[in-house]
Structure formats: C-alpha cells, structure tokens
## 1
Amino acid sequence: MEKVLLKNIDRPDAHRIDAYMRYGGYRAVKKALARGRDELIQLIKDSGLRGRGGAGFPAGLKWSFVPHDPTIQKYLCCNADEGEPGTFKDRGIMDNDPHLLLEGMMIASYAIGASVAYIYIRGEFAFGARRLQAAIDEAYDKGYLGKKIFGSDFSLDIFIHKGMGAYICGEETALLESIEGLRGQPRKKPPFPALAGLYGKPTVINNVETLSCIPAIVEKGVDWFKSMGPEKSPGPKLFCVSGHVKKPGLYELPMGTTIRDLVYNHCGGIRGDRKLKALIPGGVSAPMLTSEDLDTPLDFDSVAAKGSMLGSGAVIVMDENTCIPRVAYITNRFFSHESCGKCTPCREGTHWLTEVLRRIEYGDGRTGDVELMEKLCTNIFGRTFCPLGDGAVMALRGAFKNFREEFIYHITHKRCMVS
Amino acid sequence: MITEEIRQEIQKRLKKYANEKSAVMDALRIVQRAGGGNITKADMEEIARIVGVNPVAVNAVAAFYTMYNYGKPVGRYHIQVCRNISCALLDAERIIEHLEKRLKMRTGETTRDSRFTLSTVECLGSCGTAPMMQINDDYYENLTPERVDEILDGLE
C-alpha cells in the first residue's frame, strides 16, 4: 500500500517546511480554501473517515454539528494526549511530520469556521512539542498561519497546550477542562462540545491521526480513500504493535488488515517462535482476544463484532508464557492510578479491583475473589461520567471470559499457571 | 523564586487564551523548570497573582497532574521507568531492579546528593521500543541493564 500517514517517516528533513512542501505538502490546504465549507464537510462525510482516537465516530458528521453562525467563536482542538497504553502512533506523526498535522488542522479549522486551534499534547512528549512549535513558527513566517492565509479571508492561530501527566485528559471534555486551566475532570454530556466546548463555545476535538488523513482526502478524493479498507471503515490505519513480537513498531496498513497478517507477516511472528496466547487489539481498555481470533480484520466493526474494540490501533501481543492475572493486575493498577476521582464507582472501584488483583498476583488470593471482582465490575460499568471506568471493566471482563481458570488457579495454587 | 524574566515568560502565555486562567498549567511548568524541577508554595501564590486567579485554583492544578512535583522534590536527574503493560511484557521489572541496585536506592527515593530520583510511571507512549525510561525530557528506549549502565555513565 502507498503510505499516506507515514509517507515522510523515512525522510529526515520532512519536519522542515521547505522539505515538506518539496514532498507535496501544503497543496491540499490551498485546494481546500478554494472550496466552500459545506462542500468540504460533505467531502469528509463522503470519505467515510472515522475518528482514529478510539471511538471511530464519523469525522465529517462531527464537523457538521458545529453551528454555522459566523459571529460565534469556534475552536478546533487536536487531541495529541496519546495515553492509551500500547499507543505511540501520534508521536510518530508529530516527531517526524509535524506539518502534515498542521495542514490537516488548517483544513479542519477552515471547514468548521474556527479561527483558533489548540494542540493538546501530553507533557512527556517534549521532543514532539519542540518539533511542532518549530513547525508552527515556520508556518507563521511563511504566512501560512495568522491573518488571511494564502490570500483568502481565512485566519487561523494554532497554539500548543501541554498536558502534565493525566491519562484522563485524552477524554475530550477533560481535555477541554485542562485547556481552561483546571483539573482534567470530564464534563457531563450533553451538551456536546460541538455546541458548547472550550470556553462554552462550539468546539471540534479530533485526534492527530484523524486530522493527518484530511490533506490526502482533499488532494486525492473520496474514491481513492475508500479504495483502502472495508466500506464502513475505509482508509489507512496506523497500528502500534508491542509486546512479544519479533518486530514491534509502527505500521501503516489498510483498515481491515487481519491480525494474522499484521502479527505473522509484518511483525515476523512471536519472539522465540512461541505460541500466541492473547492479544489486546486496541489499547488496554479493549478486551483481549485469543489465538482463535487471528483472522479478525482490524477495523472498527469487525473487532467490535468479536466483543472488543479497535480503539487506538494499539496491538499488544502476549505469548504462551504470559500470566494473564499479572496482566490484569498491571492494567487495573493503571486505571486506578489514572482515575480522576470525580465519580465514586470508578475512583473506589478501580482501586478495590487493583487491591484484589494485587493479592492474587502475590499469592494471597482468596476463594471467591473472581466473583467479588465481577460484582465490583457491575457496580462500576455505566455508572460514571466518562468511559475510564468502563474501560477498566471491559478489559477485566475480557480476561475473565477467556482465562477465568487461570485466575482460579492463581488463587488456589498461589502462583502462575504458566512457568 | 520567580524572576522578572519568568514573569514575562508567563505573561506571554496569557495571550494564547481567551481566558487567562488557562495559562496556569504553562505557568506552573515554566516555574518548575526554572526551579530545578520543584515548585514551592510561594511560587504558586506568585503564579496566582500573575495569572489573576485564586491560589487555591493553582494548588488544585499542581496537585492533580502527576508531572508537577509540588510537595515531592526531585533530583537533578529524574529517572522515570515505564511499568505499564508493553514494557512489563519485556521485563521492565529487570530494568527497575537494576536501577535500584546501581543507585543503591528504592523506587520513589532521591539519592542523598540530590542527583537522582527514581520513579516508575505509567505508559509514556514508547511501547514499540520497550522497555523504556525517561530521564528529564529525554526518552531512552530498548533498554537492557548494560544499556542503562552506559546511559548513567554518560550522565555522571
């Protein structure tokens, strides 16, 4: 497949504006500015582009919810908080090809009528933030940002807002709170950000990868975009593969690539040629799949049909020697650490789950602990403002579904079932 | 201590936002960096004055986000080792143990000479190059105990 999102990844000068333009950059935004806003929104709707941040919501539809009234201030926020464990795709774009993201943001801002845009980047990505700031400065110098871009009536300012270590700020309303200078705690929805977002104004929040798809769609059209992947989740997709594979890393492949193709062809199979035991297809919130699911196409609907989710495209591979209760413990410890504390079921529930999993892991598990955790899951799921608690529950339920006997074994024998 | 230079740097950030309160996060980060990785109560009161918010609002932010070191001073080199799943699968534990042994300290501690602080952290988004750690701003990836030694030798 011709690379779209990673086309400049092996070009060490692509982060400089002149090089980016030499490789064809900033042509799409000029084309976009010659079109009507409604026409652009329709184009993205027709392309079938779905949000790459995890939820898979149709991007064009999201844009269309923003009111048209030109007297109202509107905002675009790029979600670059990339925190779902296993995910490192947005970092790949920002570190190597920051102008691609900026060009996508310019087109999106124009389409929704935003004159100010923020990039919410996680604080740990110091290198990426420096690259982005340098790219923004270059764009201002060339007159590609600021007033009356490319001689049009469109003006845009882009600012970076750095996160400071809070997974929850990847949730879009927590992200908005954080830009407003507050603790990153999710808001009640509705109202949705498209109507009342940043500072109460209409706001679109799109992921880095989603925005980076936009220039190519404008340049090459809907038919080209839809020629990749399945009809209902078309386009290129970044897969972040980690864990027990021979060649972990960032892969750009068509949506709908099967797990088998990704793991055994592109990533060279499992280290030490061991057997695959389990695999998390979309970051740790996604329930794990097993070796029986190898022929599942990695697209939003096919993974959902297997009871999991494509999420951020973070594929975490575990070999036959992996202790699943330990994985569950590490995963839940993460959710407990990152729970923002706003909703009691999540704050207390993830903490309690972690304590039970910890005692199982360290050989102090008690008979009935699995049932106890199942009860806890029921009390968390669907009872919180945001999906963090749900993610913790889905992940744990996924582990119970396929590996329940391993938890029981760990409790009874006070050690791992695997060596 | 917030110098005139830092004050001006913070004041520049206020202009990024429709509501100046948004600059609290930038302000805390700038002050922490200037303070060698730490924030004091006096700093927060000064930030509140510059940004024009109640000191409680600054404190709430400093306490919420894990990268602010308010109340937990760190050494000159803050070593943060990822302990999340992708790194754990590739034996991050071994890296943590090695660091504890080499620095003769436990996770969460700072060496007596304030040179190193060792922490474990959740996913830093570098899972394809696990196991990994961050020292101050920089990422170090594909770690082995030998590689860790080389990195620390380079610092000393």
## 2
Amino acid sequence: MSRAATDQLIAALAQDARPVAPVHSLRWEVAAVAAVTSALSFALLEERGLRPPGLELLRGPTPFALVAFGLALAGFGAVTAALAFARPGQERTGWRAVTATVLGLLVSVGAASLVLLRSPLGSEAVWGGLLELPCVLVSIALSVPATLFVTYLAASTAPIRPRATAFLASCGATALGTFAAHLTCRTPGAWHVVTTHAATPLLGGFLLAVPALRLLRSRARSA
Amino acid sequence: MDSNQWNRGKRARSTRSERAGDACRETRWSQWMAAAQRGDARAYELLLRELRPSLQGFIRRQIANDAAVEDIVQTVLLSLHRARHSYRSEHPFEPWLWAIARNALTDFQRKRARRNGREEPLPDENALPDGFLAPTSSESRTGRDQVGLSRDLEHALSRLPASQQQAVLLLHLEGLSVIEAAVRAHVSPGALKARVHRAYRALRTLLEEEVPS
C-alpha cells in the first residue's frame, strides 16, 4: 500500500467524521449490569424464598455466605473484565478484574472444598446428578439475560479482543446467575455446592461463549 | 562544572522537555479527538495526519516491510475511525490509541503466521470472471439491475458471502475507489482488495459450473 493511499484514506475518514456519542463510563455499565442481575435475583428470591434454614454464615454444613461472596466477586469481576477488554486502553482494569474473578472462584470453590474435606468420610451424599442438573440448568437459564446484556454493551463499544470478551461475559453472567440460584437452592451439602454452584460459572462460560461471540461479532459488524 | 555533570544536566533537561512535549502532545490529541467526536472534520484530519508518523514508527519497530507497515497503519486508522465513540475524554488518549495499534499489529502477525506455508497466488486484480462487465463511471451509480448483469452472474453473486458481495458491489457496481469502498465497508484497503480477489475467484468457479463450456 502506498503512502498516497494512506493520504487518501485520511482524507476519506475526515470527510466521514460525523458526530458520535461517546460510550458510557465503565462504572455506569457495570452498575447497569448489577441492576439487571439484582432485579433477577430479587425476583427469584420472591418466587422461591431464601435458602432454608436461613443464613449459615461462615460456619455450618456449607459456607453459604462465603460461597455467595465468591460467586458475586467472580461475577462482577468477569463482567467488568469483559467490558474493560471491549474498551481500548483499559486493559489494566481488565486484568485487575480477571484477578478478582479468579479470586472469587477460588473463594467459592475453596470454601466449599474445605468443608467437604473436613466432613467425615461418606457423610456427603453423592446425588448422581439428579439434584445437580436442575440447579445447573436454573443457573445457566438465569445467566442468559445478563450474558445478552453484557454482550450488547461490549459490542456497542469496540471489542478488540472478542474471544476474551465473550468468554468473560458469559462466565461472569453465569456466576451472577449461579449467585441467584445459590441464594435459593434447597439442596444440602458441600458436595453439591462444590460440583454445582462453584463450578457452574466455568461451565456456563464455555457453553455460552460461542453464542455470545457470534452475537458480539454480528452486532459489532452491523454497528 | 566537569563534563559528566554537564552531560547529566543536559540529559535531565532533555528528559524534562520530552516529558513536557509528551504531555503537550497528549493534550492536543485528546482535544482533537474530542472535537472529532463532535463531528469536527478539520480537527480529525489534523489528528490523523499527526498520528501517522508515530504509528509508522511504532509498527516499523516490529515489521521491516514498508508496504506491510503502510497497510497496518491504514488498518489502525480505520479501526480508530470505527472505535472513535469508545474514547472518553477524561481518559488519556495515547493508551487508547496504542491499544488499537497493538491489536492491529497482533492481528496482522497472526494472519501472516497462518498464511505462511499455505499461500497461493491471487489472480490478477483485473482478471474479472467471464461475463462480469464492470460498469462505466456513468453507469456506476445506477444500481445493479440497470447495468445489465446477466441472471447467471446475479445468481452467482448472491451465493457469495455477504462481505465479498459487498466488496464487489461497492467497487464495481457503485464505482467507488478502493479507499472509498474500504471506508464504507469498515475494512482496510488491503482487506477489501483481498475480498474482491476472493470474490472474483469464487465467481469464476460458480460461473464455470453454471455455464459448462
């Protein structure tokens, strides 16, 4: 390509300089996602009620609050990372958010695993998927609106790393969906929490990443 | 004052002036970009012209081939144009710019690595498939029906991927230049040419299938 072609390109781009509205701030977008997921969580809580027999905080058969905190941290971390990676120049924020995501997952998996390891051998029932599957399906179903919303927001910016954005968006949305499911889940035991609640964000991340990537690319093309 | 002290002083002064220059440049670029977002074509052109040597220098550190450097600069300028709404004036401009440039460079290197070893020569740029008559400039903006495309050709064209159809239509039916078509299709001129080449090759195959000799 010649330098003259670059000159022509600059002239053509300058001619095409229509006014554009700058994107919303990252904080605004994360707050919007938080509003959507909170509304979903409250709706689910209204429908199913808080997990009986009430909050078992840091102690008890499952570390309910610690797992919930880990899931929320992982969810908001991944969503923030997805939105930051869709904004050129905000990679540092994106990597910090990825660190928060990993930390959140480690907290939720680690807390439940520690309880599982400390419980007497054979005391944990292995349900053979009968109780795990509905919980996973509910979590993933709850994550679909948030995945769509985060993908829409990312596509409206400038997703220069579409694969990472799609994976993080779906992973974060599933973590937030699982958070809502965890608040209302009636299945007891650390085994269930480890295999279902803590692992679902990654599973959902992989399952929803492909449609999210397609959506991201098609929207980014049409924008 | 010995020569070492003098050199240290000179270095400190030049570092200070470089920093001041960088800050001044950053402010100027941010202001031009904010003006460009409001639709100020003049500020936008000034910005793009001033960015060009910096981008060339940045890319030349990684790629030795001059033609490739120019191609990547064009890709960066187009990406910047498409992503200009994602710049927020409260953030510094340069990290935003270099993120776009780094991404374009990485994309180029990835594509080049993928192409290496399975490269096949593209047909000549002017080797249009048989039956494909590019309209003259007076015909060019009158639409595809009026330029008299054969039904076979229309059918073959409709079987191409949308991106290739668009490239052929912009260049040969709307009569745009490569640059104008590239801006319209939001791709670099190099990428647009590659799309047209691929479209020609596919059209040739499709037409040969449909009209056996």
## 3
Amino acid sequence: MRVRLANVRKSFGRHEVVRNLSLDIADGELLVLLGASGCGKTTALRMVAGLETVTAGTIEIGDRDVTHVLPKYRNVAMVFQSYALYPHMTVARNIGYPLKLRGTPAAELDAAVRSAAAKVHLEELLDRYPRQLSGGQRQRVALARAMVRTPSVFLMDEPLSNLDAKLRSAMRAELKRLQSDLGVTTIYVTHDQIEAMTLAHRVAVMDGGVLQQVAPPKEIYDEPANLLVARFIGAPAMNIVAGAMEHGVFRLRDGAVPLGGAAPRASLYLGFRPEDAILAPADAAMLRARIYSTEMTGNETIVTCHLDGEPVVVRADKDFEGAPDSAVGIDLDPAKAVLFDRDTGNRIRR
Amino acid sequence: MPPSGARGGRDRLAEWLDRNAGKVFILPAVLTLLAFALFPLLVSAWLSLTRLRLAAGGFSLEYVGWLNFKKLFFGSQQYHLLGTFDRLGATDWSIVGAVLALFLYLFVRYLLRPGVSVVGVIGRSIAFTVASALTVLLVATLGGGFPGSLVVTLFYVFAGVSIQFGLGLGLALLCSQNITGRNLFRIVFFLPLMVTPVGIAYMFRMLADMHKGPFAHLWAALGLGEFAWASDPWTARLVVLIGDTWQWTPFMFIVLLAAIESQPRDQMEAARIDGAGGWQIFRDITWPSIAPVAATVVLIRLIEAFKIIDLPNVLTNGGPGIATESLTLHAFIAWRTQDLGGSAAVGYTLLFVATVACLSFFNFAGRKARGAAP
Amino acid sequence: MTIPERTLLRRLFTAQDLTSMAPAAKVVVYALLLSWLMVVLFPLYWLFITSFKLPVHVNDGPDFLPFIDFKPSGHAWRYIFVELGNDTLRPYLSSVIVASCSTVLCVLIGAFAAYALVRIQYRVKVGNVAAFLLFLAGTVYVIVNLGAPWPVAAAVASVLFVLFATSVGRSFQRSLGNDDILFWIISNRILPPVVVVLPVYLMFQRLGLLDTHVALIATYTAINLPIVVWLMRDFFAGIPVDLEESAQIDGASRFRIFFTIVLPLGRPGLAATSLLILILAWNEYLLALFISTADAQTMPMLVAAQNATRGPQWWYMSVLIVIMIAPIVLTAAMLQRHIARGLMVGAIKG
C-alpha cells in the first residue's frame, strides 16, 4: 500500500528532530531511510508507526489519513532492533500474538503461525522460549511475527544490527527475497549503507532531521545530491578536493583535471570515487600527490595519498607497491567526477 | 486490513478508553488517596480545633480554636505529651547551649554558601527550630523530670532505628562473607518480620517473665528474681525497644544484604589485590556503594517507627503510668476517653514531628548519600 | 619436621587465598551469626512449645524440652479450635478475607498507578490542585458547619470543580509532572494512621459501614497503596519499552498490554510486593482497633484481647500466635519459588 508523508515535522520541546519531511512511497516498494544516528530516521519511522505524535504535517497509508490514528488501527507491522520478543511467551505464542489480539479463531491462528514460521524456517522451534534461541533465530521470530498477518506496511528499525557480520549478510538476502515475494510496502531504517544499497528500491538519506536525497541506490552513489550524501555513501568515501574552474579545466594547487563544458567559477569542490581514479607516474598525471599509506585487502590495495595536504583514497591493483612519502600521480575519469558548490554544498550539473 | 469504515460502538468505546488510558490508570489510586488520606487529613485538622462528643446517632461539634493544642503544650495535658520538667542545671544549660550553637553554626554556614534558596532557608529554619526545641525538651525531662509521650516516641524512633540499622548492617556484612549456609541464615533471619506485632508483644512478655519465663533460673541466680521490670520506666521502655528491634532488624538486614551483594565485585577484588584490609574495603568500596540504599531503608524505618503502638499497648499497656506511651497510643487513649479533639491534636503533633524528621533526614542525609554513590 | 608456634598462629589469622577467610575470622563470623540465629529462633521455639504445655508446666517455672521436661498436651489447641470454635474461626476468617482482598485490590490499583507513572507523561496544573483543595475545604466546611447533606454537597462541589478546571483551569501555566505525583503518593505513607482514622471512623459511621469487612479492606488498601506504587515503579521501569510498543503496533490496547505483557513480566516484583502488603494487612492493629469492634474483628484484635480476660493464659495465647504466623510463612514459602523463577526469566530476557 502507498505511504505518503507530507511536510511532516517533529519537535521534542524546542529541539526539532524531523524537519519538513515529505516522502512518497509506492505500493510494494522497499524504501530505506539511511543516516547516521540521531539524524531523525528512527523518529520518522516511529511517526509512521504511530508511536510518536506528529508535530505538523500529515501521514497517509493507502488513501487513509492516519496522522492521528492510534498504532493499533494503522495495520502496520514493525520489527525492532531489539526484536522486542515477549520473554514469557513461546515462539508460537509470540508469532500468534497479533492475530490473537484480533480474535482470530484458534485453528486459523495455528495455521497462520505455522505458515509464517515456515517462511523463516522456524517450524522446529515453536515451543521454545526466546531466551533459548540464538540471535539469528530471535530475528526470524520477529520477522515471522510481522508477517503473520498481512499488514499495509512493514516498518523495520535496524533489524539486522544486532547480528554478527556473517549472519547479517545471509539475513539480508533472505529479507530481500521475502519482501519481494510478499510485495508489502516496506520502510527500512538503517545506518549501514551496504544494507541500504543492497536492499533498497530507493534510498532516502537523512541528515540533521532533513531529507537530503531520495533516489535509487545507483543514483545515490553516482550522482549524490550534495556533499553530505557524497561523504556518507561509499566505503571508502568519495574524495573531495577544493579548486576552481577555468576554461573547462578544474585547477587545484597540485594539478588540473580537464572537465570541459562548465562555466568558469571560483570556489568549487571536485568529487571522485576511489575506483574512478588510477595511480600513474607522477610527472605525466593530472594530479600530483604523495603516498601516505597502503592497505592490502586481498582483492585490491587501498592507497591513501596526500593531495594539497588533504587525504585522497585510490583503489589500486592488489600487487601495487609504493613506499610511504614517495611521489605518485593520480589520473581520473573526468566523465565520472562530480562538482559541488563550495557555499551551498549542492552538486552542480555539468 | 481493518474494516476501517465499519467500526462499532464497542470499538469506539475501546478506542476512547485507550486514548484516555492515562487517566483511567491513575484515577483509582488518586481517588483512594483523596478519600482516605487527603480528605481525612483536612477533616482531622478541623477536628483538632473543636471539642467533639459522640452522641446517640451522631455527634456534636464545638469550635474551640487552639484550646486542644494549648492544653497539650501548656495546660493540664502537658505532663502527658511533653512530660514533667525539671529545673535546668548548669550541665543541662551547657548541653542546650552547645546544641543551639551547633545549629546556628550550620545555619550560618548554609547562608554563606553559594546557591542559597528560599526553600532551603525556610526548611532549615523549621528543622533547626524543631530540633532545638526537642533538645530543650529532652534535657528538661530526661534529667530529673518525667518524659511524656512525645519524648518516649522519639526515644523509640531514634534508639530503635539506630540499633536496628547497626545490627542489620552488621549481620548483612557477616552474611555476605563467603560462608556455607548463607541461605539458611537469610531465611531464618527474615522470620520475625512475619510475626504480628501483637504476638511479639505477648511473646516478649512471656520471655521476660521473671518467674515463669525461660530465664527464670538466671534471674534467680543473679538475685533479680523479685525485680518487676514492668514497674520501672526504663526497663519497661527497654523491653519495648527489644521487641521492636527483634521484629525490624530483619528488614534492615534483608535490604542491606541485597545492596551489599549487588555491589561491583571487580572493584572489591581490585582493592584486595591492591592490599586493602577488611575495614578499608568497607569504608572505601562497600559503604559508598550501599549508602543510597542505606539512606532509603533508614528513611522507611523512620516513617514507620513513628507510628508505633502495638508493642507498648500490649506489652506494658503504656505503663508504668505513661512511661511507655507512644504518641499514637496517647491519641488512642484520648479517643477512648471521648476526647476526640485532643486525640486529633496529638495526631497532628505526631504528623508534624514525623514530617519534619523525615524530610530533614531525606534532605540532609539522603541527598548526601545519593551524591556519594558512584 | 615441626611447625614453629608463630607460624601456626599466623596461619590461624591469615587467609589462604583471596576468596576465603582466615580460620579464626571464620569462627568469629559463624559464632556471631549462630547467636543471632538463636535470638531469632528461641522466642519462636518457646512460643511453639508453650502452646503444648499444661498450665501447671508453665506456672512451675521454665521447662525447656518437650517429652523430657514435660509431656506435651494438645489441650490448648483443643480449647481454641473446639471449645471456642466459632469465636476463633470468625476473626480468623475475617482476617483472611480482609488481608487477601485488600492485598489484591491494593496491588492492582497500585500497579496501575505505578505503571502509568512510568510510561505516561502527566501534567497537572498547579492552579487546579490549589483550586481542588479549596473546593474540598469548602465542602467540608459546608457539611460540618452548615449541616448540608453530604451527597448533595459532594456532587455540587464536584460539578463546580470540573466546570472550573475546564474553563479557568486551562489558563494556568505552571504544572506538576510525574515525579511530583509520585512524591505526593509516597508522602502519604508519612501520615500516621492515627491522624486520619478519626475522620475515617466518622465517615464509615455515616455510611453505616462501621465494623464491616468493606471498611477494613478499603482502609487497608489506602494505607498500603504508597508502598505498592513505590516498589512496583522500579520493577516496571525495568521492562524494555520496545515490548510494549511492539504490542501496541500489533494491535493491543494499553489495558491489554498491561495485563498480557507488563504484569506477567513484573511477576517477581509483584510477588515480593504482594507478600509485603499481605504481611502488613494481616498484622495491622491500630485501624482494626478503631474500625472493627465485634463482627469484623480480626486476629490481632483477638490476640490482643487475651490480656483482658483472666490474666495471661500463655498456652492459649501461644496457640493463637502460632496459627497467626503459619499462613504468612506458608505464603512466603509459596511465593518464594515464584519470586525466584520470575527473577530467572527476567535475568536472561531476550
């Protein structure tokens, strides 16, 4: 079902946590709210759930205005970071609780619990208590409890962050498959950009309570709307260097990049991804830098250089070798570089 | 999907209840307290200013102003509430002077501190005035005079609570050692709390019986066989105090033991490795970590101790004379003799003293203890 | 090889390792604990054996050991249960009814309030509180001095106050929060019962409820309420709020959440608090002294009244005290398991 947030605000006393948030989420879409902790993404999710009141603006689910509707009448399902399993109930009773509250007949409830449990491979554990389960199993119970009824929207608040790295990537794949099978609109909150990139149909990046950009993962990665998004997305993050445009060439102290086209402008930032640059001999390259350190990760080597005194990261071949403090040149793909206005931080279209 | 359009009246009632859950949850408690605490408190204030007589099918009231209080503090009932005063000698005066000087010093020191507040000044003024008045009262009645129910209550409260705290803390420290049978001690030590105070009173009358009690041979051997503790004011009070201590030490013990056992183990082990002895560990680690709990449990006991009645009423019937009468018992006796205004006035005196004592303790000791906690 | 005397002495006073005590210290600790054990147990033992003594055994000076010093006899028990029969059973039943009903009621009402004070934010206008007190005082004055019929006066005052609070009351600025409400509730415990018992006596006299179980139950509920609120608040505050929010989204109302999530999880606290309140209500003496005279007389009254009859008859009295202690000890033993089991659930909650 479609979810719409229109000019939603939330303040706690004088402190404004969410500022003028407008989002349109299509039926069946998986939207990821991404941002560092304290950026307002969880508050936004909790407002959709009805756990926080809305200071201003409206929230619609389907065609219904739910801004002032109690959570129980919104027909949403939520998975909490802590899973919020009821410790005094068995797995079966945990999963069946939402149906029991709706007065579902016992036989129907039992069937629904079994089928939900089957979807997440929990059939064997229905009689256990949450304390007897591993972290991954608890996570599955939480998912099953959300799926046991057909909600209008799934709300997920960092559901994978309490799992270890290996389990997390396995659950990620499973979650993505479940969501596309069920086709239920999902809002997913996370601070982990890998999760956001891999799961989302669209990613909404938030910072300081303000929505910075909403776009499909690829667009977020390739065409960040502003410096905040550019710096947040990507590991290692996008390199940002200061300079100016003159006659189609971006100039900085230790080099120049021919970008072509754009009008002359004094204060700009040039951004490029570590994989869009290659290391070259110092004298013939666009940019001249010094190697600061090299880290071999297995399939590649991450080289940190100093350019104009600023650190710049370049992905190199895994066999790359370079002594610290030795001079090195950097060539980059002008088509993939992006420009930002130094005053507003916004990307400049070329 | 909820059938959003077709919700019935029951659902609407449920939603109304849900939205107003805050009021519904707290209202029973608030109404109960209004009916059985606040309302009676106001009526009682009014009663203490009247002379009230029960008559057939009702009662009659007559406003008498402060007469009931005047009678208690300065008139014919002074001996009963405050006691019989002795002329103050040189030593008495020096004690009073020293205490007054101490309070004055504390008060001035507070005034010179940054962050003086109006509430603080008023609170301290009341606390110090009451404490000074009680000091004069104690000195005047305990020396050569005869203490009244107010002084006796203060004796029960302060002697009782300090002894119980000391014993409870000591036992808790012993019991927290690494010994076998800890659970047995814990369960058995809890038992006295479950015994009805009236029962305790009779039990101690039995035990303290000079001829038929279990220690009869001992008394006889000591030449005390004919001694009647119930007719000597101080031994009578002491027996009441022993009964109270027997019952309430377990309370202190249980709570303090829980606090000691939940203190951080690693700190204690670190201190031990650093070479700290038992006393140093207690002073530097155990005490600071249990101080807030200790302050709370003493506060609770203070509050409850002021209400003592069962033990003196049953154990000694308030006697000899009025020697073991507590304020509550005094109020009850006044009520039984149809002096309802006087009873309410005694009750209000008790309320005033208890409130000042508990709030003072909470503000002076309680805050400090909480501040000392890590 | 002989151990020098000094070393032996030293070994007596030094610990073998960090976790154990020196042998001498151990002896002292045990001696002290065992002596207090005697202090606690001996009076109870004496009570118990006295209940099996014949008057002659009591009056002839102390006899300590049953079967050796004296031959146990059930005469006192027979007298209390058979000859007195109903005179014992009626107060006993009275006590059971009053203590159990008031405990259940008190814990329920108190738990409601404690939970609300933890989870719901209250704002009470100072002006309205002051106005309420004025209205209350005015009502009392009108009833007592002008002889107005109390139901009419109370109804009129309530209506006037509600009108006032909803009109003028809205303009007050300063308000009290949860901590103030909590402080007020707890501070009611400082009130000595003897201060409030006179008006309560008159109130029940007016209502024709003097010397009834209802009067005792209501009064006991009120005086023990502050303790329940104080204790239960901490237990409820320890329950993760996620669980309740999850239930809320799953479709549970506040009341459903309270009864199916909060109360079961607060069970250890509930058991401990109930036990304490039961002990207080079971042993209460002063209020019973005022409010119950004959029909609703409770056990403490019966025990206390033993004095007045034919001098102290220790054997009968001992029986009465023993049968008063027994149910409390049994309840404590029963709840002990509950408390322990509940704590285990709480300690490893998922």
